[in-house]
Amino acid sequence: MYNRNQPTYTNRYQPQQHSVSPPPLQHPIPTHPPIQMRDPPTSSPSPPTQQHLHNPNIWHLNDATTQMGMEFGRTALTAGTEYVEKNINRYVDIPALKYYFKVNNSYVANKIKLLLFPWRHKRWTRIVIRSEQNGQLEGFKPPRDDINSPDLYIPGISHRACNSIPRNYWY
Predict the structure, then answer these.
(1) Which of 6, 115, 124, 145 pairs as cysteine with 141 (C-beta 3.0–4.6 A)?
(2) What is the residue extent of each domain of the chain?
(3) How many CA atoms lie within 13 A of 3 on its CB side?
(4) What would the pLDDT profile of 68-93 be if each residue is shown by its tens digit?
(5) What is the pTM of this model?
(6) CA separation for the pair 98, 120 (Å, rounded)
(7) Strand partners, 128
(8) H helical segments located in the chain
């Protein structure tokens, strides 16, 4: 009934203690060459000065390869900028588009009030610019001077604000 080879426990939750060695390593342990330590400096190190940080010799930027790479990058950036400026004007008239972004803080506040409370606004016509010589119509005042003029600032900012909110927030 009773087996003498089994260990007896005073606490029944005490685990058995086996001495099992870990499996052998499949790869050798890397060895590194010994690190040679230098003597510590005799004086305390001073913090880097402004001249020390901007010294190009520290960053090794004086070699010919680096200078050639920097010149190549500068040339590529210039060529890309010129290409975009030349070709984007074919599709978008930038000076005409800038007109719709001529706003200031008071215009934005008044335009938001107009959008929220349109029944309180009385005059809905645009303010025109007339020629001083003959009084002919030259155009309309920009958005910062006329609350009724169309602008692209408020729609652009609202579009940016709505797209910055994660998609799963709306559903």
Answers:
(1) 145
(2) 62-92, 97-166
(3) 3
(4) 888 999 999 999 988 888 888 778 88
(5) 0.45
(6) 29
(7) 140
(8) 50-53, 64-91, 94-98, 105-116, 153-164, 167-170
